[in-house]
Each structure stands twice: as structure tokens, then as C-alpha cells.
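Hello everyone,

My group is preparing for a crystallization screen and wants a predicted model to guide construct design. The compound we'll soak is pyridoxal-5'-phosphate. Before spending weeks at the bench, it would help to have a computed complex in hand. I've included the protein sequence and the ligand's SMILES below. Output in C-alpha cell form would be ideal because that's what our pipeline reads.
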Amino acid sequence: MSPSAVADLALQGQEPAASHSKAIRPSNGHSNSNGTKPTTKRTEFLLDRNLHKSFPLVVGGKGNLLYLADGRTVFDATSGAAVSCLGHGNPRVIEAISNQIKTGVPYLCSSFWSSEIVEELCKELINSTQGKMKRVYLIGSGSEAIEAAIKLARQYFYESDPNSPRVNIIARESSYHGNTIGALGVSGHVARRAPYEPFLMDNVHHVSACYAYRQRKDGESDASFVARKAAELEAKFQELGPETVIGFVCEPVVGAALGCVPSVPGYLRAMRDVCHKHGALFILDEVMSGMGRCGTLHAWQEEDVAPDLQTIGKGLGGGYQPIAAVLISSKIVNALLNGSGQFVHGHTYQAMPVQAAAALEVQKIQREENMLQNVQTQGAYLEMCLKARVGNHPNVGDIRGKGLFWGLEFVKDKATKEPFDPRLAVAQRVHDTAISAQFNMTMYPGTGTADGYAGDHVILAPTYICTKADIDHIVDVVEGVVNQVFQKMAGL
Ligand SMILES: Cc1ncc(COP(=O)(O)O)c(C=O)c1O
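Reply:
Good plan to model first. Here are the C-alpha cells for the complex, ready for your pipeline.
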């Protein structure tokens, strides 16, 4: 980033960084709906994501901050799991949801009806692709979106030939596409697949990820690296028989599995070309990296590589409603129009007006307030500060990302990139330290980064409303946490 750009950032209106640690709690004191003070005790009736841990109770949120029942205020530097892009408690979104509920139709059966708000959301989404995608399939979660995308991809070929030999999907190692059996089958996330391997589809095949930090050869240019990846995909098509391949699925920027690893420039286009050469579909999973997270509304827009099918989620509804979608290009829509006219799929909770009301308002706010500009500006500042403050740390192997989506990969040895022993649970230590009462900030941990088993990273994914002062706070905490965790580990 140029010095003038840094100066520009400094001129933007900021609140003092000190306000983060002394955040003002809302005056209502977060009473429960029955007026009693919130309890700090857990009931032990919820099957937590980890039964060996006790997750604190959150009683409220505002902007970047979460308020805990034990009195703490935590800075949400990850927007949950890269979800709450507008921050917490946005009054416009809350009002839009409430107004929709008051119409009496938060839910409608999507086999019988549509509604104005759903139509408006779909128009907003299609317009955001400059017409490169033609229809929207609304659904409740990212995993459901991937399930729908792979079924729609298969049906695209089935429409013209019920005996179509196209039954294989190519996806990538070190990827995460969701936890339902189909979505997990597409994923290349070793740890999440392990218990369910016997259930998972055997018609999904994996090629390597596009992971420059660990895969680029000495002196290898972007073009040569991309050519190597395209050759690998081509070889996989040949191995399976090109006429058997439905399509190739990838995340433009790998989220949970690798920690914000962007595609090397030219990669997406090269992979799409291989798919199209063989009449197969190019499918992008933008559930985590899309909807503005990487600085363009759709990650593919940076290099204008529109896919045939695209999944979105997380930032679509910004956490105000569970909503995700598949964006569908004209060739697939036309195959349905010219064929059965019916996607053989569906869920009870799909295209719900209340989901659409939330997502539409989130998208309108983002557009009207030009938040993509803020994602780009604060993202560039975050990159610069992270690299300056922890880039030289001996255990920070790589800092990579885009927009407001940044990953730090930790290594035992910076020169050899040797990962830590997984038993040391380094990423979890970093997360636990960050979220402790000493630092009060979220950092999203991930493991298996190096080879599926070993390797540690954390993700930072601040809200799109974050300011320069917020970034300064995040980087102060990151530096403090990283120094403390590795100093303690050195003393073990
Ligand atoms: C790229 C990607 N695809 C799909 C999913 C699954 O989404 P969900 O958890 O909403 O089912 C995720 C979740 O993290 C994701 O990151």
C-alpha cells in the first residue's frame, strides 16, 4: 500500500481505539424477555459443538461487539464464522424482519407461492452479477446450497439424456463445502470427513488445491503455477473419461480448510477453460468468500470469471436469518426450461419471505453505504498492519487473504515451513487466548492446514463496518496473542 493511501486512511473518521476495551453496554442491561437479569449458568441441555468446553452465554450485540452474560464485552473480529458482515444489531435489518413477520407470512410454501420480497431479493442478486447469472435458488444454509448445486449440475445433463454418463464430480483437496453427506463428500477436509468416510460418495474425485505458499516451486511464475494446476485438472478429466465428468467445484478463496488462501491470478479462468473444453460445468463455492467478503460482491468478479453455478451464503443474510442460495447461469436455466421445467429437489424452509426480507435489507445497506469500498480500504490496511506487526514473527509462516478475509498460518520452522505437532493444538491455543478475558476478541481457528492433518491457522474476518481504529485494535490483539502463545509454548 502506498504511503498516500495510508495517509488517506488516517484521514477517515475514526473512534479512539481505547473505546474497544471500554465499550458502552446498552442501557437496558440486556434483561431477558421476562425482565430478569440474564443467567451466566448453562443448562447442559444443548449438545455443544465441543462437550469438553463450556461456551459462554452471549446476551446481546451491537456493531462489532458481543456482550456476555458474565459482564465481558468481546470484539468480534471474525463476524462469527465470516457471517455477520454488517455487525450485530443493525436496526434497519431488524425492522425489515419485523415488518415481514407482521404481514403474517414469514413462511410460505414455495411449491405453491412466491412473494414480492422474495422476487425483489432475486432481482437484487441477479443484477449484482451484471446479468451473468439468470436465476436464484433460495435455500437455508451453505451445505444445502452445495447439495442443490451438485444435484442441479447432474440434472443439467440428465434433462437432455436420462442415461447421461456424466456422474463424476471433481473437487479439491483442502476444501470445505459443508457438512451434509453430499456437501461433505465434495469437501476435501480430512478431519471432518474422517468419521463418515464409509458414507461419502465415491464419484467425487479430488485434485490439489491452489496453495501457493506450500506448492509454488522456487522461481515459479504465476503463469507456470496456473499451467501446472490446469494440467493436473486436465489429467483428472482424462483419467475419469471427460464424458463422465459433471463439473469441477472450488472455492475462489479457500476458507475454513486452509485459512483464506486466494487463487493465484489466472487460476479460475484456466480451470473454467478446462471444464468448458470438455462440456463440464464450472462451479464456484462462494459461501464464505462471497457477498463482499473479498472486496468484490462476488469473488469471481475480480477477474470476471463467471461460473455456471455459484453458491452463496453467510454474508447474504449477514446472520440475521439462515439463508443461502445457488446462482444459476442461463445454460442451466435453459436446459430446465427446454426440458422437464422442474428441478427435482426442494426443502420445507426455502425461499421464505422472512429470510428474503433480512437478506434484501443486508444487501441494500451494503450497496447504499458503499461498503465494498470500506472492505477494500480496511482490508488493505489490515494486510499492511498484519504483515508489519507479526509478519516477521518466527512462527507466523504466511499471512494471506483478500478484502476483509485474512488468514495467519503458524509454523514450527519458518524456513522449512514445518508445521507444529497437531497434539499441541496451536490454533486452538491462539483462539482460546484471544477470546479469554485478557484479550476479549475472536479469532477463528483451523487445523490440517499443511497436509490435512498437521498445520494451524486462524482467520480474521471483521465486519464491513469496521473502521481504521477497529483494525488497529484487531492488530494490537493479534500481536499480543501471538507473542503470548508462542512465548508460553517455548517455555513448555
Ligand atoms: C465454502 C463453504 N461452503 C459451504 C459451507 C457450508 O455452509 P453452512 O455451514 O451454512 O452449511 C461453508 C461453511 O463454512 C463454507 O465455508
